[in-house]
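Q: Fold this one first, please.
A: Sequence and structure below.
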Amino acid sequence: MAAPVSVKDDQLTRLVALSPGSPGSGRVAGLVRRVCAQTLSLPPLPAEVAVDEPQSEAESVIAEFAEQFSADVSTITAEQRSRLFKVLGDGIFGVVVQMYIADFIPRVRAGLEALDVGAQYLSWTHAPVEWDHTTDPSDVVFNEFLPAVGSMRALDPVTSELVRLRGAAQHNCRLCKSVRESRALDAGGSETLYADIEDFEQSKLLDERAKAALRYADALIWTPSHLVADEVVEVRARFSEVEAVELTFDIMRNASNKVAVSLGGDAPRVSEGTETYLLDSDGQTVFS
């Protein structure tokens, strides 16, 4: 078995540097990065091509979809999806993956800066970008970044699962809601405990550490530009620095479900009940 991996210092930098297409032709990437950041009221990712406004009907369709992707992915309509497919054709998946990068890395930056942790992951915020025109963003996201996050083991599995299920509900990912991680179940997770996630502030089963993690997840999902000081202080008080970094990356990893939700590809694994899976030491999802 391969040795466990973890998120490397330069992995966000690599994601930021992805600018598919020939040099100078990155209008779509530039547009998506501006729209997502504007929707979140956060600083945008660097863009090789600065784009202020859509300059065609096709770009307007992409901008509308990106805005809804960032604001509330669960409300993207079939009509919006159809219009995007007509504009992008087979390229739709790659562009939506770019939306995920443009949408969530600014949230991670806001979280890590507010917590004052993980500065090594933010070198891209002050260094020149060496643009990558050849690498497929979906390959880096799904085959490198997400498994690397999944392999991190500082945070206990129950907290990771609570945060995952909260994100699943907030984004209304049917697939994510239909599965349960086995390490968390072995460590004390249960349907009784998970049922309290919806109204976690009133829960008598969830402890204050779990509630702090869930508040932080909600903040990154809904109000990343207005992180509440008390919530940040509570995370710092109840989690070590390495746990807080992992918690932040976990929220981003879970939010990759926005790609499937936005494209209508989030069908549940089972029609009734839930299915168990293992997030193995390599960060891979393994169903029995």
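Q: Good. Now the second chain.
A: Here it is, same layout.
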Amino acid sequence: MDRRRFLSRSATVAVGAAVVGGPFQGLAAHAADADGTGADTRHGRPGGYGPLKPVADERDGAVRLHLPDGFRYRSFTPAGSPMTDGAPTPGKHDGMAAFRGRRGTTVLVRNHEVNGPVGAFGDAARAYDPATGGGTTTVVVDRYGNVESSRVSLNGTQMNCSGGPMPWGSWITCEETVNGPDVGNDFTGADNGKLKQKHGYLFEVPADGTSSRVPIRSAGRFAHEAAVYDPVTGAVYLTEDNFGFASGFYRYLPPISPWVGGRLRDGGRLQMLAVKGRPGTDLSAAQRPGAAYDITWVDIDDPDPVFAPGTTNDQAIQAVGNQGRAKGAALFSRLEGAYYQRGVVYFVSTQGGATAPGETAPDGFGDGRGQVWAYNTVTRRLRLVYESPGSARLDLPDNVTVSPRGTLVLCEDGDADNFLRGLTVDGRIFDLARLEPVVGDAGAEFAGATFGPDAHTLYVNVQSRLGMTFAVWGPWHRGGF
């Protein structure tokens, strides 16, 4: 979208600010199918596309996805395969966004959530930190997953989990870590002493170029997950996935509009969400149907703290969030994917809610199987859109996007089979795809779902050591997408 079109759309949004709220405005916290009135999730449900069946990959004939009747797919750029710039494709494909390319193509900017001091992929001389193996790749494809070109667009970062597309034509990629030479190791066998730079920041990647590899430090050093931009308030909203501890919901207020120079500037103000009049509210716990809260924002005084020698990774990863919680910020469980639509930020709490009867609470902070929240940026009101009643309905949602009809697409990161689920505007969950188990790579999961510019194709990653990207197309008009 060019600048003139974006400003025109922004004006339209601002004029209609009194009625923003998105398609889920009236939805209760527990969806209509939570009482068992919907069909079994494994056999399709209202709003869906019917039962799933194994479908062969059009690239090589292998079965990697289970899809409804009439849907097809092609995988591309698997980990280790050479890109057109000569660099090997890194693994751990994760968050992703689609931009309009030339001659009907789609430009995908894609994260790679690689941890540890394993060395940078691509040209190490250009890397932010030559010791680390995360970053982004940019792939130009057609609507059927045929690759035109692929290249390194950011290297030398670490644990690039999710992020968000910016309407001025950039992808903001987020590091889900605070590793660096100044903090202790995050897992047994790691060696942060080999790192050359501090990590835990946002980086901007132009869709038509490469990143400057300069971090946006004022947006905080914490376990970043996703980022979305709101043209009404001019804020970038940020989620935090702090696996073993409470997480927060943030906003970054840039010092200059991103439209000045076409990029997100450092030097702004970081804030954290708090429930108005109820400091320290624990929103990771089970919520009543239709739960809603008026919220306020508290300032983070030191978004990029200096750590004393001997600081552990657990201490460092809570340092920014603890500043907000000391001022009354709300507690969430593992905030992951986020998406902006019509004045509302939808975001996912992966382990929010109560433990379902007969199930075991997952490891980490939070006992439930997932929540979906909606924050109205104009009214400053937070609502619970959906809370999973158990893993059979929704199992640990992660990345999220939205279809042209307003249905949310949720990528699961569950303990058993992982699905792409749809959540319709009237609160019905249905299955779109199931990932065939990856031999020798049990942690494989869906990530980075995003529709192409013409909505013909859903692009989605499998996040694993043997990761790859899929282009999925079919009769979308038959169901909720």
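Q: Anything worth noting on the second one?
A: The longest helix spans residues 313-326.
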